[in-house]
Amino acid sequence: MSVEVRPEQREIVGLVRDFVEREIIPVVHQLDHDDEYPTQIVAKMKELGFFGFAIPEQYGGSGLDFETYAMCCEEIARGWMSVTGVINTHFIVSYLVEQFGTDEQKQRFLPKLATGEMHGGFSMSEPNCGSDVQAIETRARRDGDDYVINGTKMWATNGEHSTVVATLVKTDPDAKPTWKGMSCILAEKTYDGFRSTKRIEKLGYKGVETTELVFEDNRQPATNLLGGVEGEGFKQMMAAIELGRVNVAARGVGVAQRAFELSIEYAQQRHAFGVPIAKHQAIQLKLADMATNITAARLMTQMAARKKDAGERADVECGMAKLFATETCFETVAEAMRIHGGYGFSKEYQVERLYRDAPMLVIGEGTNEIQKLIIARGLLERYKI
């Protein structure tokens, strides 16, 4: 169930798949149930250059296009979705710096992000707002050569391990419309008054930490204002989140693919009424639907990534891919549990972990209800009469 793959893509994706089979799958079961950060896996990913996959070669990265990066994310999510969380926010930060950063910011951040010396985080949500991004309250006030930041951010993946966090703030709270008063600060933890606090306990998505971030009179140098111009933060973050949706779609495909693999293997081993359950039509129908939907989700993710690579507007395509792939994932892991029967409900089997991970994808990077609104508005604009 593969899509068209170029020779260079096959080599890179093959390297990632080998890494997943060798370094992640043998240890994921225990790490997930212990909710333990994958320190050794992350260290090996840094050694292999995973953190610089999408960073241009001139800054020490591999310069992969979005399509290839999405394929790599699918493979990693197939092993353990949490590991894609470790590198996805990092990727978003590097994308923001590359696309919108000043020359000085590119020279200062990208080489260290490529090696993993700096670990990127991404923060928009707050305790009182999620999908309504313009309702954020975190304030950054200019004071000489610094910005003084006060506020609280929520749902920060890599909240503890990140060293630089692309943070959406209000630099002009009186701006009309509101989004024109928002900016992005590349907030570094080396400056006092910026810390990760409450660690959020989650149903799934274990291992990678999700935290609250607190700014208390935190001073960040004005040179950390992304692009050096105030009022551009909302547009910058929306461009990044659009790319993040391709990543989430790829994660959905990866998790669904793993659920399918486990199911079709189990169905040929488990016997009921004297034959493998794969011989029963009810199970065959489930396997057929799973494989068909996963293939469609993979193609939609590839289409969205290619559109981003072409530099075209892709809000509709990214929204569609995220919506379809994550709903496919959610449905596939549910069917995988049914195929496994009582064993699927047991922590002894991997399906239980996949079942806990899938819900995060339908709400992360913009809920699927929001995706439908984005898709509809984009379509109405394209087909305007």
Key traits:
AcylCoA_DH/oxidase_NM_dom_sf, 385 residues, Butyryl-CoA Dehydrogenase, subunit A, domain 2, alpha+beta, 3-stranded mixed β-sheet, oxidoreductase, Butyryl-Coa Dehydrogenase, subunit A, domain 1, flavin adenine dinucleotide binding, 3 domains, 15% strand, acyl-CoA dehydrogenase activity, AcylCo_DH-like_C, Butyryl-CoA Dehydrogenase, subunit A, domain 3, single chain
Instruction: Examine the secondary-structure arrangement and name the CATH architecture of the largest domain.
Output: Up-down Bundle
Superfamily (CATH H level) name of the largest domain: Butyryl-CoA Dehydrogenase, subunit A, domain 3
Strand fraction equals 5-15%
CATH class category of the largest domain: Mainly Alpha
Task: Pick out the low-confidence regions.
Answer: none
Distance between the termini: 39 Å
Mean pLDDT metric: 95
> What about the largest sheet?
4 strands, antiparallel
Indicate the radius of gyration in whole angstroms.
21 Å
Structural class: alpha+beta
Instruction: Give, in spatial order, the strands making up the sheet with the most strands.
Output: 2-3-7-6
Could you tell me the CATH topology label of the largest domain. Answer: Butyryl-CoA Dehydrogenase, subunit A, domain 3
Number of helices: 10
SSE pattern, N- to C-terminal: HHHHHEEEEEEEHEEHHHH
- General form: globular
**Helix content bin:** 40-55%
